């Protein structure tokens, strides 16, 4: 019989890819999702329960019914800008909701959790590679809510013996190779999907947010990591918990920075379509440079990226957007380029 894993937020972007990776590794993912931003047709690898992580009785009942040996916790509100205008939602859902989840796990006797954290807990730490020891100074309620949950998890380890690994992702991107699942949000705020939606005529207000950063081409630099690599890191982290690891926190990035213009140039190359690179104002709260030092995840989890070359990220994302938006097919040469 397959080992069942509760996946909160498994109908979302990263969570659905984790379910796919869990199934490939021989687990049965059991999705708990309230479908606030998730998609029912992304739940393909195991049963789904519609409900809220804050409902500890539902969590306990679901874990017990399916015999879940561990939890992957993706469910959260995760838009930085929205968190600034509506912080109550972020503290209630991300911190309060997680307390409900942890209470349900405690009731059901489930002691292992892998948590989706973020590089936003570091705030604006300067231009060097970010290690796990870099000072944490979140500048948005979203980042603060994730930092709080990391603290809660350490306290629950001390008090209740709950074992946890926090995975601090940098910029998740890309889609499954078969274009089965990918990024689809409303509203969409992220660079790569917005650029592609603009190419497909789905949005008309695409702009480069800031061309006056202290970087070589003036645009902000991020560390883009393919969602398939992130999913694999979750499977490795779960295995580490099952192997006796008690607490951990790891940065997950490719270790390489790419500027907004570099990403857009690669999108033009892969799609064969020119982008209008309109310069707009900086977006509030955007740090100039965020790049991961991934050494600790490599050493302790054996994690290396396999799919995070920018060309592969863009190719998979473009295939997904062509399918998801049902647009006229791209010229064949575009994908072959
Ligand atoms: N996408 C990124 O670049 C990125 C970067 C760093 C961290 N993260 C974190 O990874 C996780 C997944 O992000 P994503 O991009 O897949 O987001 P997403 O919005 O696609 O997925 C979140 C899922 O959680 C569900 N959900 C939200 N609140 C819930 C609740 N109270 N109860 C039950 N289900 C709930 C939503 O319906 C959705 O299916 C989040 O915790 C996010 O903060 C994402
Ligand atoms: O239409 C757009 C959208 C984005 N950008 C720029 O592209 C870069 C990447 O932006 P994204 O919105 O794709 O990603 P972020 O770096 O803002 O966000 C990521 O990092 C955040 C923490 O800083 C959160 O963790 C979030 O979930 C995660 O996607 C930024 O410089 C942004 O200003 C544009 O120029 N135009």
From TrEMBL:
InterPro entries: Epimerase_deHydtase, NAD(P)-bd_dom_sf, UDP_G4E
Entries under Pfam families matching the protein: Epimerase (PF01370)
Record bears the keyword NAD: yes
Gene3D superfamilies: NAD(P)-binding Rossmann-like Domain, UDP-galactose 4-epimerase, domain 1
Enzyme class: isomerase
An individual GO BP term: galactose catabolic process via UDP-galactose, Leloir pathway
UniProt keyword list: Carbohydrate metabolism, Isomerase, NAD
Keyword GTP-binding: no
Catalyzed reactions: UDP-alpha-D-glucose = UDP-alpha-D-galactose
Cofactors demanded by this protein: NAD(+)
Pathway named in the protein's UniProt entry: Carbohydrate metabolism; galactose metabolism
An annotated Gene Ontology molecular function: UDP-glucose 4-epimerase activity
Family: Belongs to the NAD(P)-dependent epimerase/dehydratase family.
Subunit structure of this chain's protein: Homodimer.
Protein name as annotated: UDP-glucose 4-epimerase
